[in-house]
Amino acid sequence: MASFSKKFTIPGKSSDVIYQAVSTDIDRFLSKTPLGTVEVSREDASKKVTFKSSMASGTLTATEGELSVEVSLSFLASAFKGKIEEGVTRWLNKTFHV
């Protein structure tokens, strides 16, 4: 199984602002990926969004000025690792202008 873990610095944004943006946009973002049907859960208290499909699972955690992304990909989905990571970076740039 391929995986990647990355921390994105988002200066000047609170954990609440980051979590709200991720929580609101995650379904739309995942619908544009080749991951199939994805189950998403949100944990408001810990500011975490998790997702799971037959091809991938992941956790996005918002903290003060930072978003941590941890994703595990199935063998078949590992070919899309770079594309998914690129999509997350593009989304962050668009959403937070970083």
Question: In a nutshell, what does this entry contain?
Answer:
The chain is an alpha+beta fold and 98 residues long. It has one domain (2-96): Alpha-D-Glucose-1,6-Bisphosphate, Chain A, domain 4 (2-Layer Sandwich). Helix content is 34%, strand content 35%.
What does this structure look like?
This protein is of the alpha+beta class and 98 residues long. It has one domain: 2-Layer Sandwich (Alpha-D-Glucose-1,6-Bisphosphate, Chain A, domain 4). The chain is built from two helices and five strands. It has helices at residues 15-31, 81-96; strands at 2-9, 39-43, 48-52, 56-63, 66-73. A five-stranded antiparallel sheet has the order 1-5-4-3-2, covered by helices on one side. The model has no long low-confidence stretch (mean pLDDT 89).
Strand proportion, as a percent range, falls in: 25-35%
What's the CATH architecture? 2-Layer Sandwich
Structural class of the helices, strands and pairings? alpha+beta
Number of helices: 2
Instruction: Write the element-wise H/E pattern from the N-terminal end onward.
Output: EHEEEEH
Sum up the overall morphology in one term.
globular
Low-confidence stretches: none
How can the largest sheet be summarized?
5 strands, antiparallel
Mean pLDDT: 89
- How far the N terminus sits from the C terminus, by CA atoms, comes to 30 Å
User: How many domains in all?
Assistant: 1
- Give the fraction of residues assigned to helices: 25-40%
Beta-strand segment tally: 5
Strand order of the largest sheet: 1-5-4-3-2
The CATH class turns out to be: Alpha Beta
Query: CATH fold name, please?
Result: Alpha-D-Glucose-1,6-Bisphosphate, Chain A, domain 4
Cα Rg: 13 Å
